[in-house]
Amino acid sequence: MLTFFRKIRKSLAGASATKKYLLYAVGEIMLVMIGILLALQVNNWNEWRKDRITEKRTLEDLVENLELNVTFLNERVKTNLKSDRSSEIIASFLEERLPYNDTLERHFGWGLTIEHVGSISSVGYETLKNVGIEIIKNRKLKKEIIFLFEETYKNTHTRIDRIEPSNIEITKVRQGLFMRKPGFKFEPFDYKSLLEDKIYKSWLLTIKNNRQWLNYSIENSLEETERVLQLIKDELGKANT
Predict the structure, then answer these.
(1) pLDDT digits over 121-142, tens only?
(2) Which residue in 189, 207, 211, 216 has a CA-CA distance of 20 to 30 Å to 174?
(3) Whole-angstrom distance, CA of residue 162 vs CA of residue 10
(4) How far apart are CA 229 and CA 68, in angstroms?
């Protein structure tokens, strides 16, 4: 009988050891899993931190890019307005048949000129595309940046392309009617004939209209550039707080 109870106790002791071993094993597995999860969490945090650093640098590059564009576009608007004034002065002289004076020489130069925008800088945007546009976590800001470069600027460049043929033609017309002088001044070969030249007057009006049409687009690009620039600065301000 005693032997029987000894066997039962031994069996229970064995069962207890197995249970303890299982609990220990489960504990070890849980610790390993927690360690893996923590490691993943730390890694994710490090990646997020690196992304924010990259985002900040990319946005700073865009700020520099857009500030240059603001200066560039402002200069083009001012120059075209100056040219508009010259066009009006020339038109007034021709219409009223006023006598020639040499102060008109600079107006003959600017009056048939459209200040080309050239290529609006997109260096910062190209950097952003190389890094990956998704690096910008603010979805609204991301859309605004894309629209500025992909729509607003491209529309302005399209207008430039459309008026380029007329610029080439007016250059030929000017070469046939004026003598080029230093300082971007032009003296007419025959002012009296110019007073009667309907083709020249027509070109004067055409260039003025084209200039105003282009300037509208330049001013729109300028306005949008300043707006998006401020949005980027606001976003950078949040990152620094």
Answers:
(1) 899 999 999 988 999 999 999 9
(2) 216
(3) 99
(4) 11
